[in-house]
Each structure stands twice: as structure tokens, then as C-alpha cells.
Design a protein that fits this description.
With about 290 residues, this protein is an all-alpha fold. It contains nine helices and two strands, in the order αααββαααααα. The protein has two domains: about 190 residues, no CATH class; about 70 residues, no CATH class.
């Protein structure tokens, strides 16, 4: 999926985020979370488990804290010391909210892995080259500032004026000196960058792209299939198949044909990037085996 046109990637992640937010039924939420997890594993490998491990406490925290502030529900699990009931419905609603939040963060992690800064610059560089340049510079700002801060700290340490030494007033003054050095370095660098871009003729002609993303027949067929799946899923969601009620008791609409069709379409749409990645890797391994 890394070779797909960036507009298609951007459209998919936008649709995935919207679908993750609007569905409430556990079956749909589990399908969205599983699809987001599988996609992150396919693009990051085992490193994705670190992200998953960081999200588990988020889900638990939201699930456990929600009944502390929301006492709605008919099934009381326990009474809190300050007299508020701790209800099962509020706990399940907290699990639903935490799962939705974790799934959204998984989608964002996959988006960051697939759509890097230069790819976003490709999308907006043709129509707004100035915005693309500023965006690229902003992405470089944090790591460049970190490297320059280390250089400044090392220089002051060599002069015997390292931060963390002396009284509180001396540390504040030293921090102001280091911040002043960093700020001056950044302003000087921005002037040099502006002069360099002007000397190279930036903005004087038609912008050119280093990478060209082409849409082949396979991509077009995949897009058509994803559009059909998305349409069926949206029809089912609009018809109330993905809704859930948590108060006063947990209840769901009865499953029917539209529910099954929308759930299958919803799952296949969100799983399509993972399926495409798996197919591309299988094709690559088959091509290697023929060598």
C-alpha cells in the first residue's frame, strides 16, 4: 500500500477515523480495532506492540474512571465512599469510549508510518508550494532544535557554565542564555534558508515533484471495491445498525440482513489496506523465489 496514490491513502484514513467515531456497537468497534491493529503490525512489524502496550492503560483508565463521574445505569456494582453508585453500564460505556480512543490512535500511528512529511508535501506542493515548504520546515524544527540544544549545552559546559549549576537565580540566568543562543541560531538559520530558496528560484516557476505516484489498473479496481464496501457500510450505519444504548441498560438493535451486510462491508473496507499489503508481500516473495 506504500505505492498507492497519496490522495487515496488520505481518503481512507479520513473515512476510517470517521467510521471509528460514529459506530457504537461492540461488533463494529472490535472490527475497527482489529483492522487498525493488523494494519499497524503490517507497516511497523513487532515495533507496533510497543504502541499497543502504551494504549492498554489508556483504555483501562477511561473505562475505570468513567463510572466515577457518570453514575447512570441500572446495574449497581458497588457504592463509592462518597455515596455515588458505580454502575455496570457506565463501566461498559467507558470501555466503549476507551476502545474508540485507542483505535483512533492506532489509525494515526499507521498514518504516520505510511504518509511521511515528504508525501504530505507532495499532496499540497502543487497547489500551495509555500505551505508545503513551511510544513516541511516545521517537521524538521523539533529534531534540529534538539541537536542544536545539545551543541549549545556542550559549549556552555566547556566554558564551565553548564545548566543545573549554582543557585536558582544563576540557573534561571543560564537557561535564559541558552534559550537566547538557540533562538538566535534559529532566526539566523531561517534567514539563510530564505536567502537560499530565493537564490534557487523558489516560487518563480512551475513546481516539480521528485516522486510521481501513478494509478494502475489494480489500484483502480481496489478503489472501486473499497468505494462499494464503504457505501454499504454507510447505509447500514445510517440505518441504525451500529448504534447501542448504554443507559439505563445496555441494549442493541436486533441483528438482521442489513446488520450483517454492513458489518461485513465495514470490516472488509477497514481491512483492505492490510490485505493489499499482504498481497504485495506475497507477490514479492514469489518473484524472489523465481530468481
Amino acid at each position: 500500500m506504500e505505492s498507492w496514490h497519496l490522495a487515496a491513502l488520505l481518503g481512507f484514513f479520513a473515512a476510517a477515523l470517521v467510521l471509528t467515531v460514529v459506530v457504537q456497537r461492540p461488533a463494529f468497534q472490535v472490527a475497527a480495532a482489529a483492522a487498525a491493529l493488523v494494519l499497524l503490525l503490517s507497516v511497523r512489524g513487532v515495533a507496533a506492540w510497543r504502541t499497543v502496550g502504551a494504549l492498554v492503560p489508556v483504555v483501562l483508565a477511561v473505562a475505570l474512571v468513567n463510572p466515577l463521574v457518570n453514575s447512570q445505569g441500572a446495574t449497581v456494582i458497588a457504592m463509592l465512599p462518597w455515596g455515588r453508585p458505580y454502575t455496570l453500564e457506565a463501566l461498559l460505556f467507558g470501555v466503549q469510549t476507551g476502545t474508540m480512543l485507542a483505535t483512533m490512535l492506532l489509525w494515526f500511528a499507521s498514518f504516520n508510518a505510511l504518509v511521511a512529511g515528504e508525501k504530505l508535501s507532495y499532496l499540497i506542493g502543487g497547489s500551495a508550494p509555500g505551505v508545503a515548504l513551511v510544513f516541511t520546515m516545521v517537521l524538521q524544527l523539533v529534531p534540529r532544535f534538539q541537536r542544536r540544544a545539545q551543541t549549545v549545552f556542550a559549549a556552555f559546559d566547556g566554558l564551565g557554565m553548564g545548566h543545573g549549576r549554582g543557585s536558582a537565580a544563576q540557573r534561571v540566568r543560564q537557561g535564559a542564555r541558552e534559550l537566547s543562543a538557540l533562538t538566535g541560531w534559529a532566526l539566523e538559520g531561517s534567514i539563510v534558508t530564505a536567502d537560499s530558496m530565493r537564490a534557487r528560484g523558489f516560487g518563480s516557476g512551475r513546481p516539480m515533484r521528485l516522486t510521481v505516484y501513478r494509478v494502475g489498473a489494480a489500484q483502480a479496481a481496489a478503489w472501486a471495491a473499497m468505494g462499494l464496501l464503504l457505501a454499504v457500510a454507510v447505509v447500514g450505519i445510517a440505518g441504525g445498525c451500529a448504534t447501542a444504548q448504554f443507559v439505563p441498560v445496555v441494549s442493541f438493535p436486533p441483528p438482521d440482513g442489513l446488520f450483517c451486510a454492513s458489518l461485513v462491508s465495514f470490516t472488509l473496507f477497514l481491512a483492505m489496506p492490510s490485505l493489499v499489503n499482504a498481497a504485495e508481500r506475497l507477490r514479492w516473495r514469489l518473484s524472489l523465489s523465481r530468481i
